[in-house]
Amino acid sequence: MTESILLSVEGGLARVTFNRPAYLNAMDFEMGGRWRDIAHQVTADPSVRAVILDAAGPAFCAGGDVVAMGTSGAGGSAVTEAAHVIHDGIRTFVESDKPIVAAVQGAVAGGGLGLMLAADYIVAGEKAKFVSKYANIGLTPDLGVSTLLAGAVGERRALRLLLQDTTIDAATALDWGLVAEVVAQDALAARAEEVARFWLAGAAGAFGQAKRLVRTGAGRSFADNLDDEARTIGAAFDTDDSKARVAAFAAASRKSKEQR
Protein backbone atom coordinates (compact mmCIF):
# COMPACT_ATOMS: atom_id res chain seq x y z
CA MET A 1 0.00 0.00 0.00
CA THR A 2 1.33 3.43 -0.98
CA GLU A 3 1.93 5.69 1.97
CA SER A 4 -0.35 8.73 2.08
CA ILE A 5 2.46 10.94 3.36
CA LEU A 6 6.11 10.30 2.56
CA LEU A 7 8.91 11.16 4.98
CA SER A 8 12.64 11.29 4.39
CA VAL A 9 15.37 12.72 6.62
CA GLU A 10 18.88 13.40 5.33
CA GLY A 11 21.60 15.80 6.40
CA GLY A 12 19.40 17.60 8.91
CA LEU A 13 16.59 18.15 6.38
CA ALA A 14 13.22 16.42 6.73
CA ARG A 15 10.95 16.27 3.68
CA VAL A 16 7.25 15.66 4.32
CA THR A 17 5.31 14.96 1.11
CA PHE A 18 1.53 14.63 0.76
CA ASN A 19 1.10 11.57 -1.47
CA ARG A 20 -2.53 11.09 -2.52
CA PRO A 21 -2.29 12.82 -5.91
CA ALA A 22 -5.29 10.98 -7.37
CA TYR A 23 -7.40 12.67 -4.66
CA LEU A 24 -5.64 16.05 -4.90
CA ASN A 25 -3.97 15.11 -1.61
CA ALA A 26 -7.24 15.48 0.28
CA MET A 27 -6.80 14.13 3.79
CA ASP A 28 -8.84 11.11 4.86
CA PHE A 29 -8.91 9.45 8.29
CA GLU A 30 -5.77 7.36 7.70
CA MET A 31 -3.79 10.28 6.28
CA GLY A 32 -4.76 12.44 9.24
CA GLY A 33 -3.30 9.92 11.66
CA ARG A 34 -0.12 9.66 9.64
CA TRP A 35 0.20 13.47 9.59
CA ARG A 36 0.02 13.58 13.39
CA ASP A 37 2.52 10.76 13.79
CA ILE A 38 5.00 12.31 11.35
CA ALA A 39 4.70 15.69 13.07
CA HIS A 40 5.70 14.13 16.39
CA GLN A 41 8.46 12.07 14.80
CA VAL A 42 10.03 15.00 12.95
CA THR A 43 9.82 17.53 15.76
CA ALA A 44 11.25 15.07 18.30
CA ASP A 45 14.22 14.19 16.08
CA PRO A 46 17.26 16.22 17.22
CA SER A 47 18.98 15.61 13.87
CA VAL A 48 16.26 17.54 12.01
CA ARG A 49 17.07 21.25 11.70
CA ALA A 50 14.74 22.24 8.84
CA VAL A 51 11.64 20.84 7.13
CA ILE A 52 10.25 20.98 3.60
CA LEU A 53 6.50 20.38 3.24
CA ASP A 54 5.45 19.58 -0.32
CA ALA A 55 3.02 17.46 -2.30
CA ALA A 56 2.93 14.99 -5.17
CA GLY A 57 0.78 15.64 -8.22
CA PRO A 58 -1.00 18.71 -9.59
CA ALA A 59 -2.40 20.06 -6.31
CA PHE A 60 -0.97 20.79 -2.88
CA CYS A 61 -4.05 19.80 -0.84
CA ALA A 62 -7.79 19.94 -1.43
CA GLY A 63 -8.50 19.84 2.31
CA GLY A 64 -10.34 17.00 3.96
CA ASP A 65 -11.53 14.09 1.84
CA VAL A 66 -15.23 14.76 2.41
CA VAL A 67 -16.24 12.14 -0.16
CA ALA A 68 -14.39 9.42 1.75
CA MET A 69 -15.75 10.69 5.05
CA GLY A 70 -19.26 11.06 3.72
CA THR A 71 -19.38 7.51 2.35
CA SER A 72 -17.65 5.85 5.29
CA GLY A 73 -20.72 5.78 7.49
CA ALA A 74 -18.92 7.92 10.06
CA GLY A 75 -20.92 10.45 12.07
CA GLY A 76 -20.06 13.88 13.34
CA SER A 77 -18.28 12.56 16.41
CA ALA A 78 -15.83 10.64 14.22
CA VAL A 79 -15.19 13.75 12.15
CA THR A 80 -14.58 15.74 15.33
CA GLU A 81 -12.10 13.12 16.52
CA ALA A 82 -10.34 13.13 13.14
CA ALA A 83 -10.08 16.92 13.30
CA HIS A 84 -8.48 16.67 16.75
CA VAL A 85 -5.92 14.21 15.38
CA ILE A 86 -4.97 16.48 12.47
CA HIS A 87 -4.97 19.52 14.74
CA ASP A 88 -2.48 17.73 16.99
CA GLY A 89 -0.10 17.48 14.04
CA ILE A 90 -0.58 21.10 13.01
CA ARG A 91 -0.03 22.38 16.55
CA THR A 92 3.05 20.18 16.94
CA PHE A 93 4.65 21.60 13.80
CA VAL A 94 3.63 25.21 14.49
CA GLU A 95 4.91 25.21 18.09
CA SER A 96 8.14 23.35 17.31
CA ASP A 97 11.61 24.80 16.91
CA LYS A 98 11.94 23.37 13.38
CA PRO A 99 11.61 26.03 10.63
CA ILE A 100 9.31 24.77 7.86
CA VAL A 101 9.11 25.87 4.23
CA ALA A 102 6.14 24.76 2.10
CA ALA A 103 6.29 24.33 -1.67
CA VAL A 104 2.74 24.87 -2.92
CA GLN A 105 1.37 24.11 -6.37
CA GLY A 106 -2.08 23.97 -7.90
CA ALA A 107 -5.16 23.98 -5.70
CA VAL A 108 -5.11 24.72 -1.97
CA ALA A 109 -8.65 24.41 -0.64
CA GLY A 110 -10.47 24.23 2.66
CA GLY A 111 -8.37 22.57 5.32
CA GLY A 112 -5.46 22.57 2.88
CA LEU A 113 -5.07 26.23 3.79
CA GLY A 114 -4.50 25.30 7.42
CA LEU A 115 -2.04 22.53 6.55
CA MET A 116 -0.13 24.95 4.32
CA LEU A 117 -0.09 27.56 7.08
CA ALA A 118 1.56 25.09 9.44
CA ALA A 119 4.67 26.11 7.48
CA ASP A 120 6.57 29.24 8.43
CA TYR A 121 7.64 30.24 4.91
CA ILE A 122 5.49 29.48 1.88
CA VAL A 123 6.73 29.42 -1.71
CA ALA A 124 3.91 29.16 -4.24
CA GLY A 125 3.98 28.20 -7.89
CA GLU A 126 2.71 30.90 -10.21
CA LYS A 127 -0.42 28.90 -11.06
CA ALA A 128 -1.41 28.10 -7.47
CA LYS A 129 -5.01 28.87 -6.43
CA PHE A 130 -6.44 29.35 -2.95
CA VAL A 131 -10.08 28.91 -1.94
CA SER A 132 -12.19 28.08 1.12
CA LYS A 133 -15.24 26.08 -0.10
CA TYR A 134 -16.26 25.08 3.44
CA ALA A 135 -19.68 26.74 3.41
CA ASN A 136 -20.36 25.53 -0.13
CA ILE A 137 -20.86 22.06 1.34
CA GLY A 138 -22.37 23.19 4.61
CA LEU A 139 -19.23 22.79 6.73
CA THR A 140 -17.22 25.10 8.95
CA PRO A 141 -13.48 25.87 9.09
CA ASP A 142 -11.12 23.40 10.70
CA LEU A 143 -7.40 22.52 10.61
CA GLY A 144 -6.53 25.89 12.12
CA VAL A 145 -8.02 27.91 9.27
CA SER A 146 -10.09 30.22 11.49
CA THR A 147 -6.92 31.24 13.35
CA LEU A 148 -4.00 30.74 10.97
CA LEU A 149 -5.70 32.30 7.95
CA ALA A 150 -6.73 35.42 9.85
CA GLY A 151 -3.23 35.66 11.30
CA ALA A 152 -1.71 35.53 7.83
CA VAL A 153 -3.99 37.85 5.85
CA GLY A 154 -6.02 39.73 8.47
CA GLU A 155 -9.55 39.21 9.68
CA ARG A 156 -11.37 41.00 6.84
CA ARG A 157 -9.58 39.15 4.07
CA ALA A 158 -10.01 35.86 5.90
CA LEU A 159 -13.74 36.52 6.15
CA ARG A 160 -13.86 37.41 2.47
CA LEU A 161 -12.44 33.99 1.62
CA LEU A 162 -14.67 32.18 4.09
CA LEU A 163 -17.94 34.03 3.42
CA GLN A 164 -17.75 34.38 -0.36
CA ASP A 165 -17.05 31.86 -3.10
CA THR A 166 -13.76 33.62 -3.78
CA THR A 167 -10.70 32.03 -5.33
CA ILE A 168 -7.47 34.02 -5.26
CA ASP A 169 -4.49 33.45 -7.51
CA ALA A 170 -0.84 33.31 -6.52
CA ALA A 171 -0.21 36.99 -7.21
CA THR A 172 -3.10 38.00 -4.94
CA ALA A 173 -1.95 35.55 -2.27
CA LEU A 174 1.45 37.23 -2.35
CA ASP A 175 -0.11 40.69 -2.11
CA TRP A 176 -2.26 39.59 0.83
CA GLY A 177 0.68 38.01 2.68
CA LEU A 178 -0.73 34.50 2.44
CA VAL A 179 2.50 33.32 0.80
CA ALA A 180 6.07 34.65 0.99
CA GLU A 181 7.13 34.16 -2.64
CA VAL A 182 5.74 33.22 -6.04
CA VAL A 183 7.98 31.44 -8.53
CA ALA A 184 7.61 29.61 -11.83
CA GLN A 185 6.30 26.08 -11.34
CA ASP A 186 9.49 24.51 -12.65
CA ALA A 187 11.49 26.49 -10.06
CA LEU A 188 9.25 25.67 -7.09
CA ALA A 189 11.02 22.62 -5.68
CA ALA A 190 14.46 24.16 -6.10
CA ARG A 191 13.46 27.42 -4.41
CA ALA A 192 11.90 25.65 -1.41
CA GLU A 193 15.05 23.59 -0.99
CA GLU A 194 17.18 26.73 -1.30
CA VAL A 195 15.25 28.30 1.59
CA ALA A 196 15.72 25.18 3.73
CA ARG A 197 19.42 24.97 2.83
CA PHE A 198 19.86 28.59 3.86
CA TRP A 199 18.61 27.67 7.34
CA LEU A 200 20.83 24.61 7.49
CA ALA A 201 23.91 26.54 6.39
CA GLY A 202 23.31 29.23 9.00
CA ALA A 203 22.42 29.18 12.66
CA ALA A 204 19.60 26.68 12.19
CA GLY A 205 18.90 26.46 15.92
CA ALA A 206 18.48 30.23 16.18
CA PHE A 207 16.20 30.31 13.14
CA GLY A 208 14.12 27.55 14.71
CA GLN A 209 13.79 29.36 18.03
CA ALA A 210 12.89 32.62 16.25
CA LYS A 211 10.12 30.78 14.44
CA ARG A 212 8.89 29.22 17.68
CA LEU A 213 8.79 32.55 19.50
CA VAL A 214 6.77 34.22 16.74
CA ARG A 215 4.38 31.33 16.13
CA THR A 216 3.55 30.77 19.81
CA GLY A 217 3.60 34.42 20.86
CA ALA A 218 0.15 35.33 19.59
CA GLY A 219 -1.51 32.99 22.08
CA ARG A 220 0.27 34.28 25.19
CA SER A 221 0.57 37.44 27.23
CA PHE A 222 3.26 39.98 26.40
CA ALA A 223 4.93 39.32 29.76
CA ASP A 224 5.09 35.58 29.03
CA ASN A 225 6.59 36.29 25.61
CA LEU A 226 9.24 38.56 27.12
CA ASP A 227 10.15 35.89 29.67
CA ASP A 228 10.43 33.28 26.90
CA GLU A 229 12.60 35.63 24.81
CA ALA A 230 14.94 36.22 27.76
CA ARG A 231 15.30 32.50 28.47
CA THR A 232 15.77 31.63 24.82
CA ILE A 233 18.45 34.22 24.03
CA GLY A 234 20.35 33.26 27.18
CA ALA A 235 20.29 29.59 26.23
CA ALA A 236 21.35 30.45 22.68
CA PHE A 237 24.24 32.59 23.92
CA ASP A 238 25.74 29.57 25.69
CA THR A 239 25.74 27.30 22.61
CA ASP A 240 28.98 26.55 20.75
CA ASP A 241 27.42 27.78 17.52
CA SER A 242 26.52 31.16 18.99
CA LYS A 243 29.91 31.55 20.68
CA ALA A 244 31.68 30.98 17.36
CA ARG A 245 29.39 33.33 15.47
CA VAL A 246 29.58 36.08 18.11
CA ALA A 247 33.37 35.82 18.11
CA ALA A 248 33.47 36.05 14.31
CA PHE A 249 31.13 39.05 14.37
CA ALA A 250 33.28 40.79 16.99
CA ALA A 251 36.44 40.14 15.00
CA ALA A 252 34.85 41.51 11.84
CA SER A 253 33.68 44.61 13.72
CA ARG A 254 37.19 45.24 15.07
CA LYS A 255 38.68 44.84 11.61
CA SER A 256 36.15 47.24 10.15
CA LYS A 257 36.99 49.88 12.77
CA GLU A 258 40.73 49.49 12.14
CA GLN A 259 40.24 50.05 8.42
CA ARG A 260 38.36 53.31 8.87
From TrEMBL:
Q: Which Pfam family would be a valid example here? A: ECH_1
Do you know which InterPro entries this protein is assigned to? ClpP/crotonase-like_dom_sf, Enoyl-CoA_hyd/isom_CS, Enoyl-CoA_hydra/iso, Enoyl-CoA_Hydratase/Isomerase
Q: Where are the transmembrane segments?
A: none
* UniProt cross-references to Gene3D superfamilies, sorted A to Z: 2-enoyl-CoA Hydratase, Chain A, domain 1
Q: Which domain of life is it from?
A: Bacteria
- Signal peptide stretch: none
Q: Which family does it belong to?
A: Belongs to the enoyl-CoA hydratase/isomerase family.
Q: What is this protein called?
A: Enoyl-CoA hydratase
Taxonomic source organism:
Microbacterium terricola
